[in-house]
């Protein structure tokens, strides 16, 4: 099933890392990559989720010797990859419902154990809505039972598949179809939302990480590390959505990088509920650089108070996760 | 082996004999004893590598066995009432995707008002979900139906719901013949899935299907139900040959020879109905009864045949389609379409209200004189209803209905029966 892939020099950060030592190159850079989510799917141009899923699932496939089952929640990833009668998946793949992917994955893992096929590994994946809102009960259950499942959340910060409605991952101020940029407090409310990676850590599961499509080496490393561990694991990947964010498709990677470099999306790893590593930021960028190119946040740019509140969130992350290490600390 | 055993525990033993590989469940009365016993059997190693997954909701329980079935395991769960509603989305998903899951429903009312006792509102709410739905009359039949259900589910790759009346069956101690492992193994071959998540042969399951093919996929689910009409009698015959006992008939007539009046019902109330039929036959009445063992697929032809000689039909049912009347009666009328036979509906036993022989006898007498309300609500206390209607008329803010009635009645438990 492995398909040989030809590469073209693109000049982007996504592939074309030929200058690195072979062992440091991404899975995507090898011609042996499994192409689990193969070409021809119907994601929008510049889709962060398609990019993240391609890297994540191929890295997972390499880590387990292509012995993988994949469970998918309803959402963009499911819809753009499997419009009947086509499928972009070259792995055994099942979509059941919006809110049950973690429970279906638990069942797949249980069946594989019962059938003596424990070598086959299981990943489940979904967007932020499917994971953090409607699927959260099942996710928490899968975590607390420490079922042998790696759950990957692709967080594009709203219900993009249904037309950009607010989720509990939508950032404060953001305009969505259910948090319009009108009235006294335009956009999404402040002081709401949840942080699933920290909640996952509170379950004291063996491995939790945040990752970003801005750093695909780091993303692959984290998936690979997660796959080397048994039990419940959670990787939360930040994936910009040009359509929902009102951004240029060519700016997906740039925006993802700015989310990290402002401190708004900190990258870290936690083992058994404790943070073991946070990726330092060389120099913190002001949040306005990240917000400015996004039409969903254009009104925030004119609101000094809102801007200051978002800057304070970024600053808090910097302190909380110790992201601006000195050279000596690093 | 004959045992004096609680219905739930007998079902647990039967399910264990079917060698399930994954069991997942969430506690809800009155099915809990089934999965408690299965958990104990798994925990002490009685089912080998079988996995028992304690999940956080019924939605997760059925989702978990969906995943297990997709990954090639024989999978089982049990639920009731609110639990069945909470898993409703997954109920349709399991049948839509054709996973041969077996699920016990310990039939129980649906709230509000919350009520843990028996009626058929729960399984009726899922009747059209694409699951085969078998109803047990006795605990012996419940035990036998579970063995048949696994075979049926896997042969057609369709999920099967085995319904047994909450408390009346699940908590009743009766003499039950539990099969031997060798007998069950001879009847039920190992699970060979028609579709499986397998890295050696990757498939995509659960793709999005638009208007161009949805009708066809849906029709094929219906087609499986129609196939079941052929397969169930074959499996029932094989079961009789293997175990020496008749269980699982889709339609079972009782004393219908020359019966002008035939009573139709699902589940355990058929025992009471047969007693009433015996009493009335002894008094010279031409009455018989027909038990419906399979509600889905609905055996239209067999029911029409069983009722062919009747000049009137009375359906006794433990459910209510609010705003319409009887659900089973509507189905029976479809079986009799084109015939002039009147079909009377008796709504009985909602929320565990006892169904005494005397009440049925009186109602059947009325029907035989063609003097019966349709639908008749058996033993409905009109005084209570009239007083509450008066309260509601008296003032706008009359308060919550259930609480008003309970306050007026005082302690109600001792007044039942």
Overview of the structural elements:
Chain A is an alpha/beta fold and 330 residues long. Chain A has one domain (22-320): Rossmann fold (3-Layer(aba) Sandwich). Helix content of chain A is 32%, strand content 13%. Chain A has helices spanning 48-63, 76-81, 101-114, 128-133, 136-144, 196-202, 216-227, 242-245, 252-262, 287-291, 304-320; strands at 68-72, 93-95, 121-127, 150-155, 207-212, 233-238, 268-271, 274-278. Chain A has an 8-stranded mixed beta sheet with strand order 2-1-3-4-6-5-7-8, with helices on both faces. In chain A, strand 5 (207-212), helix 7 (216-227) and strand 6 form a beta-alpha-beta unit. The longest helix of chain A has 17 residues, at 304-320. The radius of gyration of chain A is 19 Å and the shape is globular. With 417 residues, chain B is of the alpha/beta class. Chain B folds into 3 domains: 2-243, 3-Layer(aba) Sandwich (Rossmann fold), CATH 3.40.50; 251-377, Rossmann fold (3-Layer(aba) Sandwich); 390-415, no CATH class. Chain B is built from 15 helices and 16 strands. Chain B has helices at residues 7-17, 32-43, 58-70, 81-86, 88-97, 121-125, 139-156, 181-187, 214-243, 269-282, 300-306, 327-335, 357-368, 382-394, 401-409, and strands spanning 2-6, 22-25, 51-54, 75-79, 102-107, 132-135, 160-165, 173-177, 204-205, 251-254, 261-266, 287-292, 294-296, 312-317, 343-347, 376-377. Chain B has a 7-stranded mixed beta sheet with strand order 3-2-4-5-7-6-13, with helices on both faces. In chain B, helix 1 (7-17) runs parallel beside helix 7 and helix 10 (269-282) packs across helix 13 (357-368). Chain B is globular and about 65 Å long. The relative contact order of chain B is 0.10. Classes of the chains: A alpha/beta (330), B alpha/beta (417). At the A-B interface, strand 1, strand 2, helix 3 and helix 5 of A face strand 3, helix 3, helix 5 and strand 9 of B. Strand 2 (93-95) of chain A pairs parallel with strand 9 (204-205) of chain B.
